[in-house]
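Researcher: Re-running this chain for the archive, since the previous output was lost when a drive failed. Same request as before.
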Amino acid sequence: MRTIDDMNIDHWRTPQGVSVPGDELSFLLIPDPIEAAICFELARQVHAHQDRRRGQAEEITLALMISLGGLLPGILLCDHLVEGRPEGTAKIRFGTLGIEGYEGPGQQRGQTQIEQGISVPVEGHTVLIIDDLGDSGDTMKLASEHVLEKGAGKVLTLTLYMKPEAAQHFVPDFFFGEVEQDTWIITPRERIETLMKRVPVWKQRGATEKECRRRLCDLIGYSTSEVNYYLPMVYDSG
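Model: Regenerated structure tokens:
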């Protein structure tokens, strides 16, 4: 069994997406163990911050996971930041904030908007906002402004990956890597969503079911069992 120590995590700091015939997007599938390893590194960055700021106003006391993107990294980070926090540092409470910006791969909504309010009080807290990706920068900008409006003393941001457009608008306090703007990152929580929403696009552009299978399994890296189960369903209904 491979462990985090066995992985070449540096390869994932600037990974390249896979090109698919006839698609303007490239696709990068993040395996579960890699996301766990990325979150471990980010947790150590936050630990270092907490250690330096212990007892000060800048010490993080509350974390908000942006749903849906920030939920999986937030849950993984919670284990490190609560149970594994440096001795004597604050115990971080976790909550959520619902923001929607995308309909699917490459399909951005007209306007990023708040779908669900903050689930826990933020007044006076130094708040860490967690998301999986900085794409345009709109989500983090909206989230930060909203949390400050609700009374937070300070806002810090954390994301796994940044894209160039987002980097022009904000620099997160904690992040792991960078990807090109046209790369669609497939995290463990959206593998099936991406498959279900992209296969109809490929079919409309002339791809056969066999070709869709090749793209998913051979190019992008989906498991055969996932594709065997979901592909006939979505291809026949498209």
